[in-house]
Amino acid sequence: MVAKILVTGGAGFIGSEVVRQLATQESSSVVVLDCLTYAANLDSLAQVQGRFALEQANVCDGNAVRRILAEHQPTAIMHLAAESHVDRSIDGPAAFIETNIVGTYTLLEETLKYYKGLTGAARDQFRFHHISTDEVFGSLNLQDPAFTEHTPYHPRSPYSASKASADHLVRAWHETFGLPVVLSNCSNNYGPWQFPEKLIPVVIGKALSGKPIPVYGKGENIRDWLHVSDHAQALRLILAQGRIGESYNIGGNAECTNLDLVRKICQLIDELAPNKDGTAHEQLITYVADRPGHDLRYAIDCGKIQRELGWKPRETLDSGMRNTVTWYLNHRSIYDRAQAKGERLGLSKQ
Ligand code: NAD
């Protein structure tokens, strides 16, 4: 049976990588359900144009979701549609409550009705894969062990609270109504096609244009960086082989402070696109007021997915960051288009 996978948020940063990978497989066909917010970029799907169907719809619109499920008859759903930027959630939480909580609820309700109408192999094989974040676990101190799948939830921002709510709803629809779900919680992603207001594209864009590179606080916050292609591979594996009702943590085994990360990027740009006068891009680093409630450290223990599904990241932080900086150097026009859409540099107004 050819898999037909409905990818919500398929025009976003991670969703588009999932779609690019799925669309090049003979064994699957893809439907993208995306309402095309500011964060969507259809250019990211140009290389697989004609190999997926696009449904411009909002996950909060039950009628639209019902029609799309009935028309396309997906064998699985990968739910990535979300409001995803923590800073925006501080300035305007409402959209996060609406899309991440109400949208997930609406999608679950319509999916359950659709699932109940399936029979035979289609019913046995159906999966709903909810894609979430390690931010639901809260903040770690330097000496704390990394997050496992058993770490209690302790979200601290409107974004992470809305994602935690969605995770709980997905588990409830499994436990209460029998919807076959799998979940995954991953660390910070980076790679091609990330929206320009996120940290890594901001740093690359500022360095290339010779403008101050903003670093929150003292740059001491630690994240575990995961290349988006490794993440998409893990998601495909979880969908195909993950155990129903289980969640899987996905990380890059690449903990790094923001300051070290920014320095690494500057050094790569010194090498790949040096300043004419030979000055180091690091000189552009400018410390700015910290984000309110900024979580100190996230770290992922991805032992479970490694043991059960044999997955581990292929990219190291060095190889992945070199590939990413090179990609942005070759796609500089993206910054101009994104700026025209109203770039926001990730600095909270509050
Ligand atoms: P993104 O912001 O780049 O893309 C989100 C996509 O969802 C966009 O194409 C947007 O148009 C679409 N969308 C938003 N609201 C919608 C709605 N109401 N209906 C339909 N479509 C809608 O996000 P991303 O970085 O690709 O993240 C994808 C998923 O992965 C999210 O669920 C996010 O919480 C999760 N995640 C992301 C990261 C990361 O580092 N980027 C880390 C962990 C988890």
Describe this structure in words.
The chain has 350 residues and is an alpha/beta fold. Helices cover 42% and strands 16% of the residues. It has helices spanning 13-23, 62-72, 86-91, 94-116, 120-125, 158-177, 199-209, 228-241, 258-272, 303-309, 317-330, 333-340; strands at residues 3-8, 28-34, 52-56, 76-79, 127-133, 181-186, 189-190, 213-216, 222-224, 226-227, 247-250, 255-257, 285-288. The strands form four sheets. A seven-stranded parallel β-sheet has the order 3-2-1-4-5-6-11, with helices on both faces. It has a two-stranded parallel sheet with strand order 7-10. β5 (127-133), α6 and β6 form a beta-alpha-beta unit. α1 packs across α8, α2 (62-72) packs across α4 and α4 packs parallel to α6 (158-177). Residues 342-350 have low confidence and may be disordered. Bound molecules: nicotinamide-adenine-dinucleotide.
